[in-house]
């Protein structure tokens, strides 16, 4: 076997350009498959790390109507705002009980509304509004582009100040000058103290969808939505392994404070982020198979090229085959020699394709800001697949060589 491999390399390097052109289809096919799988795996990992824990081991516990919960279970979507659903206040003992669990690192109690209309002179907007505490901005950092953020003492105060996103600024202040301007919310004037970047971590709460947002201090929220506005909870786990468990424990504690009548109308729920992320990963894997199937066409073309060159090689070495057979070489020896050469040729192309694919995936991942992941099964599978291509498309030329008659081979010119 080692002698066959040595002879194969001699034949390949004796015709370098021809061998390189023959391997080109295999190299391109394997490189495309490896790059596609690596990029898809990196994208899946990025989505998983962003969705599971919203990028920082945090999960949202939401107060929702039971109709909305049932509808989600039946694959129907009920849009129902929770801002007008009366919710009992969350007891401090419940918060401390949740915070006491070893897997819970931090908790934020905040409010949310989709219904408040914001006015500035003749311009208006329907932003997504949040009544935030200091911990909320620690769990979901914002990136200020103008002005300042809330100061520590302002979160629990009645100061009528707000932070607006770039999208809200563009709708309310087309001229761009927003800081220190007044915005009317539910008939109450609020002063803009800062503008933050449109895309923030909190967007992952809504599937990465971004819309204009306004943040108000939690202490002034009752002026806008009343004292019975439901409180949402963001729970940060100590590690990514405990995110779902921490969220479910928080929901259980919060629901234990509700009466049976209250739970018939609404209750605290937590989304199964791991299941959502796994569904997205499954979709990405199916997409990778589709693209990989398309890329495999180039492998088919490369295999045909290998068969063609091996037939040419058999023709060129007819006298060599005749001499070996005249000296006693068996049919299976000749068959194995040429089959080994085809496998070595495609395996070498597969190895070069793997290196090219990994290099391309590394460049693309760095350019688009995704993690670079080397898929070991794809690498091993790509190499094995290239060897199988060599066996399949090299068998016919090898079989032809092994069936040559010594007399006819020796007479060949």
From TrEMBL:
Q: Listed GO molecular functions?
A: ATP binding; transmembrane transporter activity
Q: Which GO terms describe its cellular component?
A: plasma membrane
| Domain MacB-like periplasmic core: from-to ranges | 19-247
Q: How does it sit in the membrane?
A: Multi-pass membrane protein
Q: Which residues cross the membrane?
A: 21-40, 286-312, 333-356, 368-396
Q: Does the keyword ATP-binding apply?
A: yes
Query: Where does this one sit in the cell?
Result: Cell membrane
| Entry superkingdom | Bacteria
Write the record's keywords in alphabetical order, separated by commas. ATP-binding, Cell membrane, Membrane, Nucleotide-binding, Transmembrane, Transmembrane helix
- Where is it chiefly localized? membrane
Record keywords: Transcription included?
no
Q: Specify the ABC3 transporter permease C-terminal domain's residue ranges.
A: 294-406
What family does this chain come from, according to its entry?
Answer: Belongs to the ABC-4 integral membrane protein family.
Question: PANTHER family recorded for this chain?
Answer: ABC TRANSPORTER PERMEASE YTRF, MEMBRANE COMPONENT OF TRANSPORTER-RELATED
Name of the protein in question: ABC transporter (ATP-binding protein)
Annotated source species: Halalkalibacterium halodurans (strain ATCC BAA-125 / DSM 18197 / FERM 7344 / JCM 9153 / C-125) (Bacillus halodurans)
């Amino acid at each position: 076997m080692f002698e066959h491999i040595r002879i194969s390399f001699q034949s390949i390097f004796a015709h370098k350009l021809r061998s390189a052109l023959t391997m080109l289809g295999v190299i391109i096919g394997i490189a495309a498959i490896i790059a596609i799988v690596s990029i898809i795996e990196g994208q899946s990992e990025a989505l998983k790390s962003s969705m599971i824990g919203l990028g920082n081991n945090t999960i949202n516990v939401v107060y929702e109507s039971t109709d909305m919960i049932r509808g989600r279970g039946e694959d129907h979507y009920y849009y129902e705002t929770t801002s007008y659903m009366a919710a009992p206040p969350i007891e401090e003992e419940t918060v401390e009980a949740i915070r006491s669990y070893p897997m819970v690192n931090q908790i934020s109690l905040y409010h949310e509304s989709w219904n408040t209309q914001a006015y500035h002179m003749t311009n208006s907007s329907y932003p997504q509004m949040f009544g935030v505490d200091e911990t909320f901005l620690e769990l979901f950092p914002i990136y200020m582009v103008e002005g300042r953020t809330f100061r520590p003492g302002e979160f629990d105060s009645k100061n009528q100040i707000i932070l607006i996103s770039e999208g809200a600024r563009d709708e309310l202040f087309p001229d761009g000058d927003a800081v220190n301007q007044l915005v009317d919310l539910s008939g109450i004037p609020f002063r803009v103290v800062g503008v933050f970047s449109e895309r923030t971590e909190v967007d992952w709460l809504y599937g990465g969808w971004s819309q204009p947002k306004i943040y108000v201090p939690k202490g002034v929220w009752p002026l806008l939505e009343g004292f019975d506005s439901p409180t949402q909870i963001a729970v940060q786990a100590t590690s990514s392994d405990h995110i779902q468990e921490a969220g479910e424990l928080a929901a259980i504690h919060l629901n234990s404070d509700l009466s049976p009548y209250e739970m018939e109308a609404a209750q605290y729920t937590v989304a199964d982020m791991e299941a959502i992320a796994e569904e997205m990963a499954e979709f990405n894997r199916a997409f990778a198979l589709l693209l990989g199937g398309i890329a495999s066409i180039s492998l088919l073309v490369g295999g045909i090229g290998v068969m063609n060159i091996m037939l040419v090689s058999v023709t060129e070495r007819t006298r060599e085959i005749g001499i070996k057979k005249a000296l006693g070489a068996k049919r299976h020896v000749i068959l194995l020699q040429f089959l080994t050469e085809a496998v070595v040729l495609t395996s070498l192309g597969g190895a070069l394709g793997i290196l090219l694919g990994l290099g391309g995936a590394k460049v693309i991942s760095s350019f688009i800001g995704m993690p670079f992941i080397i898929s070991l099964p794809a690498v091993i599978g790509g190499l094995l697949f290239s060897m199988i291509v060599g066996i399949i498309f090299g068998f016919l030329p090898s079989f032809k060589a092994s069936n040559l008659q010594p007399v006819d081979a020796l007479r060949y010119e």
